[in-house]
Amino acid sequence: MSVCDGFDASASAVLRRRDESHRFISRIDVDSNERERSEVWRRPPKPAVDVRAGQRFSRCGDGGGFAVDALFFHVVRVLVAARPRGFLLENVAEFAAHDGGFTRRVAVAALEAAGYATTWRVVDALALLPQHRDRCYLVGVRRDAGAGAYAWPPLPRVRGRCAAAGAFGRRCPCRRVDGGVGPVALRHVLEADPPADCALSANQWANVARRGDGAADVAARRLCWPDGAARTLMANYKRGYAMYSEFVPSKDGPPRFYTRREAARLMGFPDAFSVDHGHGGPGGRGGGGNADANVVYAQLGNAVCPPVVCAIAAPLLRAVLGPGPAWPDGALAPAVFDLLRAAGQALGAAPAPCAPRPVGF
Fold first, then answer.
1. pLDDT of the residue at 288
2. Are strands 50-52 and 23-25 parallel, antiparallel or unpaired?
3. Number of structural domains, the chain?
């Protein structure tokens, strides 16, 4: 069973289609007392519960944290009442350092007080996928459940920035120090025949260019690097294109947006996963208008990366459920590689050197 603090009815509908037991909580103002009267918080579900919730710690948001949004403590209430043997929470990387680390320390202390041995780590999806995406994960195991200790999976190491002189920062493929998983290069997830409705209009590209400091600046900041990794895919990728989004270069005319399938691959969703869900044509290849496309991009930008969560969750399941499908200690769960293959990621890639940068970067 899953419970979602669903601020987006369309996203909740997607969850319902994939999980018939999903219960949707309509939006409630967290500054009021209405949430106290919400049925799901007064009578939390049985222990087999997956709580999905988001909060305000991103540098792209208001950064208000616990001062304006106490949802996290309601998650703790669910844990106290439902008593699952373990939990996995995800938030933006800024959660770890918000308010000088005070927010994270308060969160860990609350989870520990609820009876859970809690550990946390910031993980970059670049360890498995061609996208720079730092997220903070908190994992907890209930102390009185007779469960084993949680051990973080051996994800490939990711260095902080490019190692070369004149470093190109967080998009350089050399940041992934270890090989053996999917490729770092963005070009491996790009479609050979993208739909025409992904192209920026001349007016849209001019609007982007006006926000830069010359053509070279716009190219460096707003065009993707096919031999490197993608920037973090954001929920407002389509709506906020003028400010933050990156685009795929075109030989003729303005660049284009990532297709919905490309965005899904960047997140690690299998190619069999529909990026349509009623928006646009089959496979999400257009036909539903800009508003419908925006919904899909928003859902993908707000999602977690399935291979990363699978890698982190597998040792948790082993700890709380006992022996299951076996895999060697010190290795990633086989399901992680199954997901990467299903998302069109080639495996066995060697560590990548610094890639040649496009002209203008």
1. 47
2. unpaired
3. 2
123 found inside a domain: no
Contact 168, 162 (CB under 8 A): yes
Could you give the C-alpha distances from 227 to 158, 195, 223, 230, in angstroms and in order? 17, 22, 12, 9
Predicted pLDDT at 282? 41
What pTM value is reported for the model? 0.83
Distance CA 267, CA 339 (A): 11
Strand, coil or helix: 199 = strand
Dist CA 3 CA 349 (whole Å): 38
Tell me: do 179 and 295 sit in the same domain: yes
Residue-number span of the structural domain to which 19 is assigned: 2-114
The least confident of 42-46, 49-53, 80-84 is: 42-46
Residue 315 · residue 327 · CB < 8 Å: no
- Strand ranges, E, within 30-109: 50-52, 86-92
> Using H for helix, E for strand and C for coil, what is the string for 267-336?
HCCCCCCCCCCCCCCHHHCCCCHHHHHHHHHHHHHHCCCHHHHHHHHHHHHHHHHCCCCCCCCCCCCHHH
Name the helix (H) or strand (E) containing 120.
strand 116-124
Tokens at 279, concatenated:
């928006």
Reply yes or no on whether the pLDDT at 21 is more than 90: no
Crossing angle of helices 71-82 and 102-113, in 10° steps, is 20
Digit-coded pLDDT (tens) for 103-143:
899 999 999 999 999 999 999 999 999 999 999 999 999 99
The count of other CB atoms within 10 Å of the CB of residue 2 is 17
Boundary (domain end) residue, out of 258, 275, 302 = 302
- For residues 282 and 269, give the distance between their C-alpha atoms in angstroms, rounded to a whole number: 16
For residue 52, is it within any domain?
yes
Reply yes or no on whether the pLDDT at 42 is more than 80: no
User: pLDDT value at position 48?
Assistant: 47
Instruction: Quote the pLDDT of residue 12.
Output: 67
Dump pLDDT digits (tens) for 190-232: 999 998 889 999 999 989 988 876 667 787 788 898 888 999 9
